[in-house]
Fold each of these.
Amino acid sequence: MRASNVTKAVALALSVAWVAGCSTSGTSSSTGSTDGTDSGTTQGVGQGSGLSGSSMTDVANLQTVFYFDFDKSVVKAAGFSDLEKHATYLAANPSAQVVLEGHADERGTREYNIALGERRAKAVSRFMQVNGASASQIETVSFGEEKPAILGHSEASWSQNRRVELKYVTR
């Protein structure tokens, strides 16, 4: 268990160093592993968001549900802009906090789907941290397949259930 945590820490440190080294090009891109498994990486971290980040009204009209491909935990490019704006808001408001709720469709075992939901939430968390949010502002939780957005047994239903929901905490 300890070796696994050390490995994760080293991988995260190397990823951060790599992203920092690539920051002059405007984007960075990484892909999943070559053995067919998904490593939960973030792709295409962009520069600048055009959002002042000064108030909650700045983020009120942004997308708060981010969808994933089957059996993947890679943040889709369609959500980059809104996630960058959420991160800018968090960076500008250190007391703001957000919960990232990871979900999966009904296929797979309960245990696998809980882990997949967690990987998805952590991928969104990493994306937001790379774009300025603090780790202390972000909480991740996984519901796996337990809270479907859409009931049904078709790809149309399943695609709506593979998601991370971003919810701001009011205290």
Amino acid sequence: MTPDYWIEAKTALAKRDAKLRKIIRKHGDASLASRGDAFQTLARSIVGQQISVKAAQSIWDRFHSAAGGMKPPLVLALAEERLRECGLSRAKATYLRDLATHFHGGKVKPRRWPKMDDEAIIEELVQVRGIGRWSAEMFLMFHLLRPDVLPVGDLGLRRAVELHYNDGEALTLAEIRAIGAAWKPWSTVATWYLWRSLDPVPVEY
């Protein structure tokens, strides 16, 4: 499911930001899309923490195959050693089992999230082991399709902003936020296109 705001957002961003306009023209036919499953999106965000898109996809494929699907009971049925054989670290294996426990036991209530604001959802999600602000922001972007998320802690976004807006030189988080202020209320869309400028493979969770 592509966000209904996508065309409006990319048109607005292209008008106000010459650097984004060039990137959007190159990758204009693609868009963010939701997989429609809260558990799978969060599990993908855990798998993808601090590793490349390519490496994350490889591990995810093995993990998904080992579980026989991506439902909380199926993940809980996997022993930690089997999760490790998929390429997951011990910490990520623990986090995935804790996530599955929260969903299977009803400790999280996804049906409430569409009516909650971004920060309230982040506050709830970070109670799950292994889900920090970055993972929660990926969830807001890729599952709930919130339009104005700027994940300044994301290494890919930081690298892209430094490359396109500061000649590749390092920027502080405050400086990235200042640059990103011009993208409101479409920070999610700007972030997605900046990711594409570094990696032609669409980012998915």
Amino acid sequence: MKRSKVVSLALGLIVFAGVAVIQTQAQTFEKKTAVTFNRPVAVPGSTLPAGTYTFTILDSFGSRNIVQIWNEDKSNLITTILAIPNYRLKPTGETVIEFSERPANAPQAVKAWFYPGHGYGIEFVYPKKEAIQIAEAANEVVPAEAVEPTPSTLRTVPLIAITPQETEVGIAEAFPPPAKTAEPVTVAKELPRTASLTPLIALLGFVSLLMGFGLRRLGSKPV
């Protein structure tokens, strides 16, 4: 009876630790981030009133990312948008949000979102009409959707870039990946706590050793 209780307890601890590892990996992959705006801001296709929102990555494939913006407690999905990598910022230990100027009387547009400890950010892709307005007002190249996507075409919709002169150029030409260099890559001194699996791996090892020791002790006693 005692042996059965020990085995059940040990297996329960291992399962709990394994679930914690899976949850930690998922949170790191989706880059869940709470962002507070003290004034309305524009995101592709909509405007967010002042408040706190949760940004997550739904999917990452090739040179594209699908970003989801939720309310603060992640109980309501507000919008799903496309994004591309932005390599223009060195890693930092905190979340960074970059903005682009908009025409007068229009809210600033969220340009890019940088997750702590990562060497690249997520630059939002705007509908073509909005991208033209932002490119002209901010005097910068803006990634855009060539046609309006649907939920089923988010992964395949053609992407372009709009210049301040309203010229369309190829997305790869306007936003090339960084050139390879022999210099060492700069990394953040401290990664987010959710990115570290060491304590959980150590817990799994400790529980396994404890279970083995307990079973050995029970096995040496008469039943």
